[in-house]
Design brief:
The chain is an alpha+beta fold and 793 residues long. It is built from 14 helices and 45 strands. The longest helix is centred in the middle third of the chain and has 29 residues.
């Protein structure tokens, strides 16, 4: 990839400032901040960019540069981000050639360049504001002093920082920065907010000291780090976007993620495939919640909060139970307790005033002050409950960590494992239905006893009271667990309830090997739509299959898996209730649409599917082999995120198992060769199926097409291998303009697919490596030529 980029450099280098069209601004020109005339500005010759005052809510005015032809008027640079000015403030290009901003009282706020002598200013069509001398040499430009944004043709030199704004509506310097250090390394850092010093790195190009020289953002959408001789050291982003069709910007967003955005200049130029809004093509790091883990600072989110990724891959900061945000408008300020903390003078006496709220797959790393091994969860709970310093206990596989406030580096993710036990005062927590009044009565009783009885008598009564109360609670939990399926947080429906929910199983969504799926509505949950899978009566080993599916699904928790909500196991009736996926299956998305699906959405679906399989194979407590990965079993949610469904064919392995032998399962065309050779079946069968699926996503066609134009194109895997061998990958996507414009990624994804469909399972990469290759964290080497795929059709 780097060698190709290097070859393209002469064609893609940024255009110099002197070559840009502009409308010169003469000495003595000025602009005044005014509510009456907010449109007053200096505009580039094309009208794409403007420079002037922009009002920021009721806070004041920002002297800024913005995209001028789109309704959002997106700001890309500002002179006074940390010192807004009020109405009546003025910016002037003085007679001696300096650009000076003064507030309404005449006080100087900002000045460039440091020395005099500029003959004119110009707002260029690149978005660069330039002060030039009489011979047109640049004395100062805004590109050399970026705020939070980089634009095409912009170059970052050593020592340059791009600092995120504080929030979406507050443009002052924030908590994250993109820094090309003087030693040549390019990093993303948390800052020592409110200062802009570097605190902790969370992404780096890891180049050798002194090698990195410039970061280049060229007009074709490539952002890369070069050495002093111009050779490419690292490709930060590898997007290929036509400058004539899209506006572009790369931003260190307030959440700390570096994103490359595009905006179509017109619907006609892009065939209506892109919305008239900013969409991001790529971003780093892939999961900021897990990347930031530092001894200092709060982490990806504020103190006492935790971080997760939303469906759009954006960071979500939330407070744990019993906590609320200090400032909802700036969640990075963290969360505060909604209750009186435990008294250290009376920690043992107050034990029964507190309880735990469990949070699965949650942790606050580097906050522990005590660590215990070979203990059970009850011991861990009691240890934290009796310790006034303990705000949260983490229990994971026989180990217990006690953590004190303020909590930092909070994250919730399936890769974390275990559970966090958040200690809250009962009076201030959200009591569960049916038990809140009883808990409040118990707390009140303890207060009364402590106030009216002597110390020793009270302690004796308190210990007796707690003993009997906890014994009754344990009995109650035992009785409750016998009513449902143990260890499952699922709703147990009756068959009659599901008949009502589905309207008598009226609307069929689809049919698979093990049953039909119907649409239903949960009237008890604000008309929430669900998908009800009704298993066939005559399924071989039906009871075992049902139990295996329930056991597998209820222990999974990942954004790329369909969530199981409930079940019915009543006599001959066995049904599963899933969350409803509004955009149907990937098969519908790829093969039944009149218009070709968006290339970048297809690539996001590929990544989501890979990430879901990686979770099933390596991140579950018990490994799950799906055995039937195909477009019909990849569903799409409201935002077209891939969600793997249907574990009815899955084989649940014990922790110490790595392979199994079983009858042939799966769907023709996606089945790995080992199924036909009586070889042990491992997770590599899913890798094979994913490789076929990836080729379908790249080429936007089925893996087998009888009506193909040429016979050699009937079997997609064979055809793709032939095209790769003959260096004719453009033939695979010749009718797909978006894919043709991103041919390097096409090549990369085809190479990954060929690795996945190797006939020898040992040659196929694990899904973890597949995910890393798709994400760009691991290079993709040239794959060997697979033997034959005819046996798999």
């Amino acid at each position: 990839m780097q060698s190709l980029l290097f070859f393209l450099i002469p064609l893609l280098l940024p255009i110099s400032a002197a070559a840009q069209s502009s409308s010169n601004i003469s000495l003595g020109s000025s602009l005044t901040a005014s509510n009456d005339n907010p449109a007053a500005s200096w505009i580039s010759q094309s009208g794409d960019f403007a420079f002037g005052f922009r009002q920021v809510g009721d806070q004041g005015f920002l002297l800024a540069i913005w995209f001028n032809k789109i309704p959002e008027r997106t700001i890309v640079w500002s002179a006074n981000r940390d010192n807004l000015v009020q109405r009546g403030s003025k910016v002037e290009l003085t007679g001696d050639g300096q650009l000076i901003l003064r507030d309404s009282s005449g006080k100087e706020i900002w000045r460039e360049p440091p020395s005099t002598g500029a003959a004119y200013a110009a707002m260029l069509d690149t978005g660069n504001l330039v002060l030039a001398s009489q011979d047109s040499s640049t004395m100062w430009d805004s590109f050399d002093d970026p705020t939070d944004t980089l634009l095409p043709t912009q170059v970052m030199s050593q020592g340059t920082k791009v600092i995120a704004r504080l929030t979406e509506t507050n443009y002052s310097s924030g908590r994250f920065m993109f820094d090309l250090q003087t030693d040549g390394n390019l990093l993303l850092y948390t800052t020592t907010y409110p200062f802009d010093g570097a605190n902790a790195p969370y992404w780096s190009t890891q180049t050798s000291i002194g090698s990195g020289y410039q970061v280049v953002f060229n007009q074709s959408g490539f952002i890369y780090l070069t050495a002093r001789n111009g050779s490419i050291l690292n490709a930060v982003t590898s997007n290929n976007v036509t400058a004539q069709d899209f506006y572009q910007r790369a931003v260190v967003d307030p959440d700390g993620v570096f994103r490359h955005y595009i905006y179509p200049k017109s619907s006609a130029s892009t065939g209506g495939r892109w919305p008239k809004a900013w969409s991001f093509l790529s971003f780093i790091p892939s999961n900021i919640c897990l990347r930031i883990r530092a001894d200092t600072g709060s982490g990806a989110c504020g103190f006492n909060s935790f971080c997760s990724l939303g469906d759009d891959q954006r960071k979500l900061c939330q407070c744990p139970p019993g906590y609320t945000f200090f400032d909802p408008d700036d969640v990075m300020k963290g969360c505060k307790e909604n209750f009186v903390p435990q008294s250290c003078d009376r920690a043992v006496e107050e034990m029964d005033l507190f309880e735990f709220r469990d949070m699965s797959n949650t942790d606050w790393p580097l906050n522990d002050y005590e660590h215990f091994t070979s203990v059970d969860e009850d011991w861990c709970r009691e240890a934290c409950l009796s310790d006034c310093f303990c705000a949260v206990a983490i229990f994971r596989e026989g180990e217990c960590w006690k953590k004190r406030a303020p909590l930092s580096n909070g994250r919730i993710d399936p890769t974390v494992g275990g559970k966090a036990l958040v200690k809250v005062r009962k009076d201030y927590s959200d009591a569960s239905a049916g038990s809140g009044s009883k808990k409040k009565e118990n707390s009140t009783l303890i207060y009364i006893l402590s106030a009216t009885l002597g110390g020793s008598i009270f302690l004796h009564l308190l210990v007796t009271f707690i003993f009997f109360q906890r014994r009754n609670q344990k009995k109650q939990k035992t009785v409750e667990s016998e009513k449902g399926v143990p260890e499952m947080n699922l709703q147990d429906f009756t068959y009659k309830e599901l008949e009502v929910i589905t309207g008598g199983f009226k609307e069929e969504l689809g049919e698979g090997a093990f049953g039909k799926v119907y649409k239903g509505v949960l009237t008890t949950e604000n008309e929430k739509p669900v998908a009800v899978k009704k298993l066939y009566k005559a399924v071989n080993e039906g009871e075992q299959e049902f139990k295996a599916e329930i056991s597998a699904i209820c222990r999974t928790n990942h954004k790329n898996l369909v969530q199981l909500l409930g079940f019915c196991n009543e006599g001959e009736h066995r049904l599963l209730v899933y969350e409803y996926m509004s955009n149907g299956s990937l098969a519908d998305f790829l093969f039944r649409k009149s218009r070709r699906p968006n290339w970048y959405k297809r690539m996001q679906i590929a990544f989501g599917t890979a990430r879901g399989l990686f979770y099933l194979h390596e991140e579950c407590k018990s490994q799950i082999i799906h055995c039937d990965i195909k477009p019909q079993n990849i569903l799409l949610d409201d935002t077209f995120n891939a969600r793997i469904s249907d574990f009815g064919l899955a084989k649940l392995l014990k922790t110490d198992q790595t392979q199994t032998t079983t009858a042939i399962r799966g769907t023709k065309g996606y089945v790995a060769p080992e199924w036909f050779k009586n070889l042990p079946i491992t997770a590599k069968v899913d890798v094979y199926s994913f490789g076929i699926l990836l080729l379908e996503l790249v080429c936007c066609r089925k893996n087998f097409e009888v009506d193909a134009t040429e016979e050699c194109q009937m079997i997609l895997a064979d055809w793709a291998c032939d095209c790769f061998r003959e260096r004719k990958l453009d033939v695979l996507v010749e009718n797909d303009e978006e894919a043709m414009d991103d041919i390097k990624r096409v090549e990369k994804f085809v190479m990954i697919a060929i690795w996945c469909i190797q006939e020898d399972p040992s040659l196929r990469p694990a899904m973890k490596k597949v995910t890393q290759m798709i994400e760009g964290a691991v290079d993709v080497s040239i794959p060997p030529d697979p033997a034959s795929f005819i046996s798999s059709i």
